[in-house]
Amino acid sequence: MPQLAIMQLSDLHREVSVFPSNKAFVSSIISDISRYASGEVPVPEPDVLVICGDIVQGSNQIDDFETATQKIEQQYSEATDILNQLCVELFKGDKGRIVIVPGNHDVSWPHSRKSMLKLNKADHNLAELSKRPESNVRWNWDDFSFYRIFDHVLYRERLLPFAKFYTTFYNGQRKYSLNPEEQYDIFEFSEYKILFAGFNSCFMNDHLNPTGRIHPESIACCYNHVSQEEFDDWLKIAVWHHDTHGVPNRADFMDERAVHFLIDKGFQIGLHGHLHKEEIFEIRFSADQSVRMPVFGCGSLSVSPQNIPIGSSSQYSIIGIDASLTELRCHARKAVEQPPELPIWMPGNINQKSYIDVRLERYIVKEYEMPAKSTLLKGLVEVEDLVAKKEYQQALVKLKLLDQANSFVRRFTIECLWQLDMDDDLTNFIGEPKSVTEFAYLSESLWRKNRIKELKELVDQQNSIPNIADSEPYKRIAKKLANRGA
What we know:
By secondary structure, this protein is of the alpha/beta class.
């Protein structure tokens, strides 16, 4: 028997009037669970429910803003109802056993449309600019025009309906940030020594940009939590929405390199949806090919039949993890061809079987790496003490001996260089700002050194990055430049 069983669902696409009804749908799942033990290959009953995005269908109609957003809110009300029913039936109402992440259909198109302005005069640089990952310029094939995000606050509110649903569903115990670097959540199950980290793979995704992407700082911030010593021997599972490989003429997937970043942060299993069909594969870590992450893509639970790939049907999965946290068995469940209002489930098909076994090679920190980790932590404690005493020069000497890729080392180094007025070293160290804080230090340092031309280039460059362009440090330095006539 497995130690933990995960029910993996995705792509609910709930609407106000949709088949099957919530009651019929939940009833079909419970009926299927009642048959688990009697099958040729017994299936474990779920301990945790993971929902990999696309909770609602969303609104792609060009209605007025109020009508469209009201429609989305009604869909989330429908989704809340069905998830509440599932929670009661599966876990006696314990919502702590449900993990939810957003998908591209959870991005509010009314908000992204309203946040953009059509550019009547095309600039020759716009085509190249629109290709950059964090650009605020979009190309619209419908009217062959460029659009620019002008209201960054409204653009961030693309996930406001999802955030409201999230807070409501978890009864205020969990909340969802509208800041992209904070769009992750951690679900700990200490009795199993397993944790789930749910990420938003819809960073910069909108009605004109289908690409999936996780904000790198959200992974880094999550790592600061899950890298604590108490989680060293835990199994870490990452959850997101988009699949990670595409074909020509398809852009709505996530760059696989984001998964390599997750592996680097100690995650050992990946769960996603979006593809509307079941898919299981492994990704080898680019830095060490011996390290592999199994990734489980879940089929669509209740999307309309015309959006399901040929040869597939509505699906969900059960993943059993054994007590050693190294043996996995994924069971496929698929819908029988039935009228949509009368769903019935049966064993699915994975490589000609109803299940697949996966051996998880736990990525254990090598013995020679342990002293390095201990040295880093000890060094950071010493640096923090020196900074508190304003002994910045001594702190800087110690920092140069530590791992420069570590986020805390980087943060302390920038602070020390700033306090010591070492502006040239500071600008060289930061290079391309990775956050609003780094932009603030870099821009003020350039201003302090009267390097106005470089400062103006920095401001123009960062204008295409919403979380920086909408920040107070950006507005402050832009105002200084305007007052100077630069």
